[in-house]
């Protein structure tokens, strides 16, 4: 195993025209495995159940990921407290443990470690630039001390906050990627994807793009708008997409959080591996070279990206030793009519049934039209009280 | 950690009226994690990637499983060869490693180890009773040497072969469970569920039921028919169900293997956790006390069973520390309209959308009406040849 | 135009192996045209708007119907009063007008006139055999006076009442057909389709079968069960089906009335013309020779039956001068991609979309498990009172 | 019956703020009744089967239509020849008969007669302004001679041709309405709805709007864009919508003709009466006062419009004597659970099932990207030859 320093960096790879495969979504995958609590979504598992986090890193590595993102989502002290996390571990302990796990597994292959920060409750509660930047600064200290390979500012609904994040990240001298969780309609202040991208590049981001909130089709479409904006402005950047592994044709501006199925009934929307191969191809054609995933992406989804782009990359991921190309593993199946499915043509054209004839195919998103600064969005340290919940339930019932 | 001998056995628990929670499906879960190849479906990971298998056992234990099934599905030498498995490990090595992993994790909690055998290619290829029983015998030797707590004969499409398996298993003196992979229409020879159950009990099974091939609703319905048959015959048994985690309203007699989505496009059919709570309740009401899962069951599905039956069992699984009852974890969510989903009423009534408006909700199963002894089902050691595949593809195209 | 007497009778045709094409559903078609009120469903239009009824008869004649059923559904005096019909016309006036209209149009082609009676509120309210038969007798007097060609007892949920009807009808000397509105599960007293058919044949029916309540697929399946029963009993009969033009895969024993969409939201379920051709072929193969329709059948649906069976019958209906076989009329369409649809292969394989992504594909039927004699089913002369409705609404809300 | 002259004209009514209810779609309704051939879609029935056309006019009048549109769609001589119509009737005979029928029925109530012209094959074949206008002129001669009350230029895909039509129509001195069959994306030359409307008003149209090609939701949305355009330009007009009675969420720019279900499998998309009430309300709120329908609209659909707007108009249509408001007619139904559906709340919230679990909810439109002037769109007098069809079929197969 080579030391981290010996590996080629993310920009070196992208500048050379190579494809960088990201990893998948830790909070959703670990929630299903029993180590993350839906609602708070905090990453204490890095310190509490390191073997589970390590195993997931390994599965993504095996699937072809060339980036191990530290499992540090929502890991600032204020968020941990805010989300009701019992104080068995400090934010610093969690962040450090997450960096060590990512590095340990990255060293088992040709992967890089990326430290990630994301939008803050502070911004939604109208804290000012200085206050928000101070929060970012504190988180980054651990990343620098642990010497991650590059940094990602991800999951921002407002480009303004993302610019602040990029500015802080650039002070480290590390390569910086920045992704918003927006769709073609733009950020929650109405800034278009093209303008968002220009702002991020001007703030110093080397790689810009989209993560979370929408399905691959929507994310690729949005990154294309970002790329068009950057090129029109005469600027240069690399492009990145890390979408959901859920189909979201029925989302509005706020993305999948507004779908009534979020977060516990999204299963019928999960993308199949062949959807993922289509995504990888379309992203590649669109000029995106950092291609990964977010919530819902399991190791086999990442493997599908790496398999689709194997001709361009020149190699298959290790995990493909357990996967026949386009269903060819079925050639050995017991039943002849299943053997007859061992072909690309079969899987590519299929329209998979939901098995749920009593359910619709699309939903009407919630979303009460509130955004940054609205009283309903102000952060509070305590769980919502019974009285507050009652008010919310009544409000929800009226909306349906 | 108590030694295995100190734990109360499976029959002791069932006789006392307790609920035994089974585990979920290893081949499907590990295929998605990158350690099992779809098509062959063999369990060499037990020896090849033990940390991945151990981790999955641990997740099921944490989710509330009181049984660790050895990951030995299709692990007889002839199958391993037949499925093209490269001979890095002998069948014996795999079976032994699987037993050790199951025992290691079982000892981390109050769980039992079950050794499992399933239907043989030999039976479909018309080998006689002696030949088939000899195959079972060989596999069981390892289980006895490793001193598993009880034995399961599972995944049989023909009750005749299952009876042979039960007869061999009973020679060990261990408790014996037997599950068929059939639906209300009965086994592939047309024997009704009630008659199948009577035959299994008479062959010596202590626990009878259904696993795989159909969704929970269908499996519970079928086990009810088995129970009625056993009671009508004046016999006694315990009952067990380990269904798919996929909705299969459109299956015919052969189950989900005939669905055109098998095995790579089943995602839209995955049951959500609330479906699982309904299953646990209905199984319990039907008098089933060994309640688990098969293909598609992930740790959070098992946890849902344990949570639904917590009132009856008197305790929650360890994994529930990361799960709010009926969505209550959402009380801490940032968006108020998501907080409004923190209630049972919301999730119980929901009809989740597929997000796939261009896809249907049901499929027409394949299935060419061939069964045991048909030339198309004869096992061959080599992968199907290109010419053979061409014939199958043409046959398939004509059927659509 | 030949006088009625000169035409070959229905039994003469069926005995000769000919196909008799029935007509479609008057109450549903005329409700949509504005002449029948949903709820009461009474046929006063025969007297009130004769031109509308005559026009519909003519359209069915043109479409290929060889039977004009008198529009006398629910036309006994007690029903007319019971259903709140204002007394502009007596039952006798309506019945006479209906007979005259049917005869007038029948004489414009080679069609026969059939007088129809159906189940009585009296039977559900537990009147005895004599009382129920007296009601039938009164209605039949008009048919005899107007000299219809044959008689149909249709839309019976209980075979017992249908037997009484057949016995009364046979006293007239006219040929008698009898159809139940039941599915494969049998009549509402649990008598199987086979046994029902035997009872009807023994009561004197020349033609037996199924009408209304279920889709063509279900009705053909049920008539096949009736035929098997009659043949097993060593009896002989002709067979008949007049199904709904609505897909009803989700119905239970009571049929489409229990579907939540009945009667105002059934549009998405309407069969297309190609579905009808499949029905005609399957009915023919099943040995059914009197093939028609019930609620939902429009003239073009009947034409599709006549077109599918044109090879057997030796002629196309008049209305086919305005219909290209299997879409061939599109050869003249302006857009080339629509011209490319001018072929059987295209239409036969199509899976038509609902255009309703927010709606499911199946519904859960209502049905409160009440049947003949239950207090909720006792007929009352007045409209349900507000208080009674309130009770029903509450009951309904609890069921969902 | 008052002479036509005694009635208040269409502009008089609209200027007074009254609602004018249009009629429904004759070609689709009469195709299903057996009098119009799909493909050619020509209106020879006006001369050939006048009783059928008269009856449909009457049904719309009874349903509340205040406009009887002459059934003269595609009734120019060249089109009649082009569409293979056998020369039993000249175009002039058909046009005259259609005018007489419309007037006869209009005189039975308070309805006006509108003469309609629509886009020409000539325009698509690149004839020049003079040639196209000459075709319009010839058709209008009959309308003037028969003294229709006003004129409608409808079903134009290119606003340029519609402007020519309006210019010709204005020479008559009659009020002129003009509707395009476009959606929010604009006409087939890419002119936006707002700009289209401005052009039509400037050409002299008194009433502008949308007909055909899209569902009510899309049409109302497009008319709103037209209205915004007209108002922004400082102009004045009345607004009109006559949408399809089919749900078309999956259409692209060309509308429902490109849907693979056109024209024979559209049934699952048919709007229910409650959808129509929502349409009427939304159109009214949008400021549209001429509210009618096009293909797929049956009499009961028009009645639903008139019932929804009865409070504004001050009266119910005659046909409502056979229709209970919001299902109230069900209060008299035999089954108590059907009586429980006699309420607005029930029908308004319902999501009707398709009864087609093997079908999707949306389709991918065809459409080969050809428009005006393309060789594939050049009109030819003969039916497409077998060789030409073969080419089209192959092209179609490649597109799927």
UniProtKB/TrEMBL annotation, chains A, B, C, D:
<feature type="binding site">
    <location>
        <position position="295"/>
    </location>
    <ligand>
        <name>Zn(2+)</name>
    </ligand>
</feature>
<keyword id="KW-0862">Zinc</keyword>
<keyword id="KW-0489">Methyltransferase</keyword>
<dbReference type="InterPro" id="IPR017226">
    <property type="entry name" value="BHMT-like"/>
</dbReference>
<dbReference type="GO" id="GO:0005829">
    <property type="term" value="C:cytosol"/>
</dbReference>
<dbReference type="InterPro" id="IPR003726">
    <property type="entry name" value="HCY_dom"/>
</dbReference>
<keyword id="KW-0808">Transferase</keyword>
<feature type="binding site">
    <location>
        <position position="212"/>
    </location>
    <ligand>
        <name>Zn(2+)</name>
    </ligand>
</feature>
<dbReference type="GO" id="GO:0071267">
    <property type="term" value="P:L-methionine salvage"/>
</dbReference>
<comment type="subunit">
    <text>Homotetramer.</text>
</comment>
<dbReference type="GO" id="GO:0008270">
    <property type="term" value="F:zinc ion binding"/>
</dbReference>
<comment type="pathway">
    <text>Amino-acid biosynthesis; L-methionine biosynthesis via de novo pathway; L-methionine from L-homocysteine (BhmT route): step 1/1.</text>
</comment>
<keyword id="KW-0479">Metal-binding</keyword>
<feature type="binding site">
    <location>
        <position position="294"/>
    </location>
    <ligand>
        <name>Zn(2+)</name>
    </ligand>
</feature>
<dbReference type="GO" id="GO:0047150">
    <property type="term" value="F:betaine-homocysteine S-methyltransferase activity"/>
</dbReference>
<protein>
    <submittedName>
        <fullName>Betaine homocysteine S-methyltansferase</fullName>
        <ecNumber>2.1.1.5</ecNumber>
    </submittedName>
</protein>
<dbReference type="InterPro" id="IPR051524">
    <property type="entry name" value="BHMT"/>
</dbReference>
<comment type="function">
    <text>Involved in the regulation of homocysteine metabolism.</text>
</comment>
<dbReference type="Pfam" id="PF02574">
    <property type="entry name" value="S-methyl_trans"/>
</dbReference>
<dbReference type="GO" id="GO:0032259">
    <property type="term" value="P:methylation"/>
</dbReference>
<dbReference type="InterPro" id="IPR036589">
    <property type="entry name" value="HCY_dom_sf"/>
</dbReference>
<feature type="domain" description="Hcy-binding">
    <location>
        <begin position="8"/>
        <end position="309"/>
    </location>
</feature>
